[in-house]
């Protein structure tokens, strides 16, 4: 009995010893696996070190993000500051500023200070002309070739440009010959007295009034030097000339020239288009054809009153940055497809024709604007154009006008497309819209513009020939050599309430 009890006790002790041994081996295994046998000293230190490292990374990351945010906020503030030192260091053409503007972080002031020089008399005018590195010779097609199946008997001002001729005109060569308006017999002739007067004009401020929608606004803050240097030329049709005579004082000089204040009135006989807006594109875009002796020109719309000396404008927007073409950025839109949508909402032209215009551009590869594009916008504020009449700028103007002649008279839709087709070869300066609003005062039209074609909502309504333009928009009626039926225009995100 006692022997059995001793065996039982001995067995239990052995079992406890085995379990104790197994537990010890397991602990030794864990220690060897994770801490090489130094549990009591290394583990707490490593835990503290790891937590400290994580905290350091998080704090560093937060401080770095705050530093970047501070730099971005300073960049935005400096660009909108009224302090000349800070506004001078701002680069509004940078990708960073453009992305911030696109994201809505940049408030858009209506007017902002223009960093112009103080004294027009101290401006140094460059000698000579800017060099033309690509186009060396530029000539124009002046004989209109009417297609055999075309019922139009009289020549068109913009000509019957074929699709193949249009495509060839975008291929740059050292010697080029393109359509550029002013076809023989197409209209828009000047009086001989005006033709002789503009031959002496090398510096031009040009404007235009058609169909009596405005009266000339007299520029202010013009220096004596600029009055002697610039010709202020107001292009009008016969309806507008009659309207101006009834509402303003028109004086005639000894040579027969007509003047309203500082403006010399230039009469264009036989307006080339049915649509007054399209007629206005002739002096606006083809300034170099209308005034061929001009070396520099500043175009302003007829409803604008110039309030900055024109010599200061040339120095600020051309000579200072070594630019040859400058135009303002549109206040609301950057994509031509968004601008087209706004034009349809504001009834600026027939909606289906605007859609057809945009389908052709989209088919030909014109993508909606995005911050990665080389230009800060595809849509200009076309009421002011500042340019040196280089051959490349003259070619651009011709191609831009050809698009207006072929499609809709909304030139803001065509500007970005021509820039896209010419690529890096055409360089220009697009300045902020708030500066544009500081160059001029805007006056209302004398009456609201309207034409029947603007109210057309469906193509079948245009079967009524009285709604159809007979001398413009040919590309919207000539069969396009591509499959536009499969083109789906990109969705438009309305970024503003304009229109």
From TrEMBL:
It comes from the Eukaryota. Residues 138-445 form the TOD1/MUCI70 glycosyltransferase-like domain. It holds the Pfam family TOD1_MUCI70. Residues 1-24 are annotated as: Disordered. The keyword Membrane applies. The chain crosses the membrane at residues 53-77. Keywords: Membrane, Transmembrane, Transmembrane helix. InterPro entries: TOD1_MUCI70, TOD1_MUCI70_glycTrfase_dom. The keyword Transmembrane helix applies. This is TOD1/MUCI70 glycosyltransferase-like domain-containing protein. The lineage of its organism: Eukaryota, Viridiplantae, Streptophyta, Embryophyta, Tracheophyta.
């Amino acid at each position: 009995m006692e022997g059995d009890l001793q065996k039982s006790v001995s067995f239990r002790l052995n079992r406890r010893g085995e379990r104790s041994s197994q537990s010890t081996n397991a602990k030794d295994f864990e220690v060897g696996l994770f801490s090489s046998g130094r549990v009591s000293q290394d583990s707490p230190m490593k835990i503290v070190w790891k937590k400290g490292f994580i905290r350091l990374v998080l704090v560093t990351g937060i401080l770095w993000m705050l530093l970047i945010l501070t730099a971005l906020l300073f960049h935005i503030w400096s660009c909108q500051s009224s302090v000349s030192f800070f506004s001078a260091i701002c680069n509004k053409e940078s990708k960073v500023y453009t992305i911030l503007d696109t994201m809505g972080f940049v408030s858009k002031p209506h007017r902002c200070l223009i960093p112009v020089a103080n004294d027009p008399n101290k401006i140094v005018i460059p000698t000579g002309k800017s060099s033309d590195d690509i186009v060396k010779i530029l000539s124009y097609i002046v004989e209109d070739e009417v297609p055999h199946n075309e019922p139009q008997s009289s020549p068109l001002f913009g000509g019957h440009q074929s699709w193949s001729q249009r495509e060839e005109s975008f291929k740059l060569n050292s010697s080029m010959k393109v359509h550029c308006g002013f076809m023989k017999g197409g209209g828009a002739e000047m009086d001989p007295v005006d033709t002789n007067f503009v031959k002496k004009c090398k510096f031009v401020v040009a404007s235009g009034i058609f169909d009596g929608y405005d009266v000339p606004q007299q520029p202010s803050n013009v220096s004596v030097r600029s009055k002697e240097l610039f010709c202020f030329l107001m292009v009008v049709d016969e309806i507008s000339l009659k309207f101006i005579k009834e509402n303003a004082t028109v004086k005639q000089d000894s040579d027969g020239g007509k003047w309203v204040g500082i403006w010399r009135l230039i009469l264009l006989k036989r307006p080339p288009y049915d649509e007054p807006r399209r007629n206005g594109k002739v002096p606006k875009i083809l300034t170099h054809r209308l005034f061929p002796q001009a070396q520099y020109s500043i175009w302003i719309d007829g409803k604008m009153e110039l309030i900055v000396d024109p010599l200061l404008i040339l120095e600020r927007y051309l000579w200072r940055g070594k630019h040859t073409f400058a135009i303002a950025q549109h206040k609301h839109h950057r994509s031509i497809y968004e601008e087209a949508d706004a034009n349809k909402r504001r009834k600026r032209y027939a909606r289906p024709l605007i859609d057809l215009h945009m389908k052709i551009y989209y088919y030909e590869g014109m993508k909606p604007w995005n911050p990665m594009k080389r230009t800060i916008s595809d849509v200009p504020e076309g009421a002011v154009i500042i340019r040196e009449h280089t051959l490349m700028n003259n070619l651009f103007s011709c191609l831009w006008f050809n698009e207006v002649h072929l499609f809709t008279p909304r030139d803001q839709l065509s500007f970005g497309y021509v820039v896209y087709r010419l690529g890096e070869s055409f360089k220009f300066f697009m300045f902020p819209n708030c500066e544009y609003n500081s160059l001029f005062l805007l006056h209302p039209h004398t009456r609201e513009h309207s034409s029947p074609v603007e109210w057309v909502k469906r193509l079948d309504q245009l079967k009524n020939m009285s709604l159809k333009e007979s001398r413009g928009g040919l590309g919207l009626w000539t069969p396009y050599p591509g499959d536009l039926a499969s083109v789906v225009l990109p969705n438009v995100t309305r970024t503003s309430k304009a229109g």
